[in-house]
From TrEMBL:
Native source organism of the sequence: Agreia pratensis
Domain of life per record: Bacteria
Entry-linked Gene3D superfamilies: Dihydrofolate Reductase, subunit A
Protein name in the entry: Dihydrofolate reductase
Bacterial bifunctional deaminase-reductase C-terminal domain ranges (all copies): 3-161
Pfam families cross-referenced by the UniProt entry: RibD_C
InterPro entries: DHFR-like_dom_sf (IPR024072), RibDG_C (IPR002734), Riboflavin_Biosynth_HTPR (IPR050765)
GO terms assigned for molecular function: 5-amino-6-(5-phosphoribosylamino)uracil reductase activity
Length: 191
């Protein structure tokens, strides 16, 4: 059974998207790409909202860039190897291989996907992740705290959600960020 992992780079004050709609909270260089690529090797499916999908779509052709460094090519190949599900009521077609559109987030379909998967699944984007979080579907939380505060926006965790989490791992990144790996406290003994 695959784990459902919620991971995003966030501001230091906990926002996944700032008040202006941005989410550039940390420079991502070679070390970060290598590290994130290693984390994603276990992933068989990415679950995205439309905006996150459009941001990540760069990786569909990044390996074709002239003079693309190996770490960019490697990360692109990891991204390309996974299936993608985009939750959107407005997106008419996808521009990447191994990708399908779903018009609504179906909690039971995610339960079935997890049960049938032998690889992990990530959910990326605070709005789409909020559905999974409220349904108790998320097995791991992996926020990456960037070295920037923004003072408002869309939080990584939805307002009103209370969780008891256990820290399993952490890593400092060269760009000043901190990757954290948490599981619900009730599940900590399983990991």
């Amino acid at each position: 059974m695959g784990k459902l992992i919620y991971s995003m780079i966030t501001s230091l004050d906990g926002y996944a998207i700032d008040a202006d709609g941005g989410f550039d909270f940390m420079e991502v260089g070679e070390e970060e790409h290598d590290f994130f690529g290693e984390q994603l090797r276990s992933v068989g499916t990415f679950l995205y909202g439309r905006r996150m999908y459009e941001t990540m779509l760069f990786w569909e052709t990044a390996h074709l860039l002239e003079h693309a460094p190996p770490f960019i090519v490697d990360f692109a190949r990891v991204w390309q190897a996974a299936d993608k599900v985009v939750y959107s009521t407005t997106l008419q077609q996808v521009a990447s291989e191994r990708t399908r559109i779903e018009r609504s987030f179906d909690v039971d379909a995610i339960r079935r996907l997890k049960a049938a998967s032998d690889r992990d699944i990530t959910i990326d984007g605070p709005h789409i992740a909020a559905h999974a979080l409220r349904a108790g579907l998320i097995d791991e939380y992996q926020p990456v705290l960037g070295p920037k505060t923004v003072g408002g926006g869309t939080p990584f965790f939805p307002v009103g959600i209370h969780l008891d989490l256990t820290l399993l791992d952490e890593r400092r990144l060269a760009a000043g960020g901190l990757w954290l790996r948490y599981v619900p406290a009730a599940r900590a003994h399983d990991d």
